[in-house]
Amino acid sequence: MEPRTPNRRTFLSLALGVPVGAALAACGTSGPSPAGGGAASAGGGSANATYWYLSTQPQEGIRTASVERFNKANPTAGITPTTFQNDAYKTKIKTALGAGQAPTIIWGWGGGGLRTYVQSNQVDDLTPWLNENPAVKDRLFPSSFGAATIDGKIYALPCEAVQPVVLFYNKKCFEQIGAEPPTSWGDIMALVPKFNEAGIAPFSLGGQSRWTNMMWLEFLFDRVGGPEVFDAVFNAEKDAWSNPAAIDALTKVQDLVKADGFIKGFSSITADSNADQALLYTGKAAMMVHGVWTYGSMALDGGDFVSGGHLGYMNFPPVEGGKGDPSNTVGNPGQYLSIYSKATPEQKEIAKKFFATAVLSDEEVKMWTDTGSVPIVNGADKLLASSKDAEWLQFVYGIASNAKTFAQSWDQALSPTAAEVLLDNISQLFQLSITPEQYAANMNAVIGK
Q1: What is the pTM of this model?
Q2: What tens digit of pLDDT does each residue of 237-262 get?
Q3: H helices within 1-110, ranges in order?
Q4: Superfamily assignment of 164-330+410-444 in CATH?
């Protein structure tokens, strides 16, 4: 990996000795939408703080339960929550911040998005508070603070669970064609016609959501050229997207599309509805590249798919001749909670009390492990053995802790402006409406913006 200045290296590629956490997908909208600087009614007091976060089960339920426990313990100064779907949230929070109407507690992914908040003085520096409350910081994985740190200062509290992206597969589908899970890119391409001949889509993909397509490129860029390829983009190096390894990776994903590697009509399938997961657990698709956050919803909605041992999982396989370490993973090395700078002093105190007493409390930690997630609390590995999902949890812990590089999701590592162009161009790439070279040229135009 190329050397970086300390504040830049913490954003994207983290060499891990311990795992770090994240979550991403969402669906559903509920609750009021109060402004961060105003009063709210839920929780019993006029000084209530407000908190926006993503919806989808089981993650939404865990977040909401933590708010409810906090409000019960603080009946006169609680928190009013509002939930949003993934894409809707990104639009809403950007608009709210621009209008001076953001919630007290801002849920996010850290990285480039957080950097734009900091540059606009929209979130508070939490470093002094964390220094005064070392127990809050010390119980969390040290590596999880990377994407929360801007120019040496911490602007968000890491929370929730470690969630890298992995390759899921339906064991029944592989049994049906008498094949083994892929151990290389060549295996993946060889499996495609076999599954298609059997009437099974090789891969499920919720392509309408765009960020689901992105996960494929994140892995292929790494497996072909190593983390240095995207690091150059992140470091705003001129024409970084035209790296030969990048063009190779872009070409490979279009080769997969052209070979009918994805479910027919994938560009009309949404991840927010969990439709892509349903294709996997119903056997309509054999494999799916997705975040480990989907395990809980597949266990919840997929009948005996998970409990019956029909779900398989593995790290993304290497590419023949590629430079990337096979242990590398991608995803979001943390979910993050920031405090809106324009919130009232009373609301900010409520937020800090919530951070100290409710975020990753013992009750919340148990809820994360009960839904098949690894919370980012030091010693979390000791909690896994007794879980009904112990094998899965140990797998996730191993993926994150053994990764030589844990790369943050591109749309979070980049600025919101560059990320939107990125997602649009990835969608066009998967639809075969632009070539790898056109993709590279379009993306080179927004490097550093």
Answers
A1: 0.73
A2: 999 999 999 999 999 999 999 999 99
A3: 6-9, 59-73, 86-98
A4: Periplasmic binding protein-like II (3.40.190.10)
